[in-house]
Structure formats: C-alpha cells, structure tokens
Amino acid sequence: MKKNIDFKALAEELAALEKQGKGKGHDLLIARVLHNMSPDRWAEFCKAYPSSNWGAIPLSELALSHMADSDANAALLEEELQNAIITEKFTEQLERELLRLERFGGELSMFSCMVHDAGEKCLSKLKKTLISILRENVESCDSMALDAKGHPLVLLPGAGPVRSRHLCETLQTSFAKRTKRQGQEAELVLGLVSIGHTEKISADGLLSRVEEALTKALAEPSRIFQIGPELLDERSTLVHSDEKRFLFFGGA
User: Fold this and answer.
1) Same domain for 58 and 17
2) How many CA atoms lie within 13 A of 236 on its CB side?
3) Is 245 part of a structural domain of the chain?
4) How many domains are there within the chain?
5) Taking the complete model, does pTM exceed 0.90, yes or no?
6) In which domain, by residue range, is 14 found?
7) pLDDT in tens, 28-79
8) DSSP, residue by residue, 166-206
9) Of 165, 168, 158, which is closest to residue 97 (Cα–Cα)?
C-alpha cells in the first residue's frame, strides 16, 4: 500500500472481508500485511474505525519471508495473530472496566498465573490443563487473555480481595488434583491485584502490577502473592455471639 495508508479504503476492505465471512460454517483467520503501518498508526485507525474482529502485530520483513517456509511457521504466525486479537480486546475491556469502576464504584481484581517446576516435555500439556481449569472456574462476566510471555490473565470485575483470593486458592487445589491424576507434578503460581474505585490506575499500570505480583509469587510459600487492600480479618467480617445478643435484645 502507499506510504500514507488510506484509512477509509482499508476500513472498506476489512468490512467487505468481514461481511463475506459471516454466516454458518467454520471461522477463518485472515492475515493481511500492511506495509509502512506502525503500531501507533494502527491504533489511530482503530479509533477512527472501531471493529471487534481485527487485531494486528508488528512484523519484520525478515520474519515475513520465513513465514512461508514451513507449515510450522505458518502455524506460529496464526497463533501470534490470535493472541494479538485476544490481547487487544482484553485491554479494551480492561479500560472499560476501570472507567466503570471510577464512575460507579465497587471493586475489581485481576490475576496472572503460570505453571512452575514442570519439565519441558509435559509443560505444554500442563498449560492446556491450566486453561481448562480456568474456563471451568471463571464466570461469564470475567475475561481471559494471555500476556506477552504467554501467561494467562484473568479479569474479575466486581470481585474484591477476599473473593479473588479464594478463587486463586480453588484454582491451585483443582490444578494439584488434576495433575496428580495425570501422574505429573507441578505448581500453580498466581499473582493477584485488587483495587477499589478510589485508586486511579491505567490499564498498562494494572497489567504491570499484576506482572510484578506474579514474579513475587515465586518466592511465596503459598505460591500466591497479593497486592491491594488487606484481607479483612475475622473481627471485621463476622458478627460474634455477644454482638448478636446486643443487636437482638439490647445490653448484655
């Protein structure tokens, strides 16, 4: 394409491809090479012509020339494109949830996780086991993606530090049981961040904080590191028997 890419022409081309692909049958991933298009220009295009089905990744000429060399390289490109689309939409969702949190209040949590102490031969299988467990435990209002290192990210709108911590512990238990049945040994490490509506933070800032929590979790005996509001203790969350008596009868 020309050096100054015509946004309108590109939008019409992508819209035509999207329209053609709608209907019954299998989904198809289409790769389109855009020469002289930087990530910043792509961001400008997405703001001018928002769409829910397109994502982009930077691609060097050398990398492009090698992609056609083998089926393995083509599969790698397909995986990178899929992850790029998912990550882009995940970030957009995160930005919306942070804005909603600021406007209406409440809580929000996000965690990242990784398989630790697993051999290279079984790592791929264990990662698939982890993804399966995550899908079984997250709710429809939650969002999932992969970070730049391939670690799963889970966004939990409306979930505070107590609920999200309990979910992380549940995931660890499920992962341990599943891997034991498979005759494998590995640990699930989780970095968790919880924030309230009074804290101002960007999407990139929150993602960086989650990455920091995951790194620190490796040094924790529980393999969970949590950043955010302190967990409420029993005194602040439970009504004790003497307090119940006062509430119902008055006095001692």
Assistant:
1) yes
2) 5
3) no
4) 2
5) no
6) 7-88
7) 666 677 777 887 888 888 888 876 567 776 665 545 555 555 555 666 666 6
8) HHHHHHHHHHHHHHHHTT---EEEEEEEEEETT----HHHH
9) 158
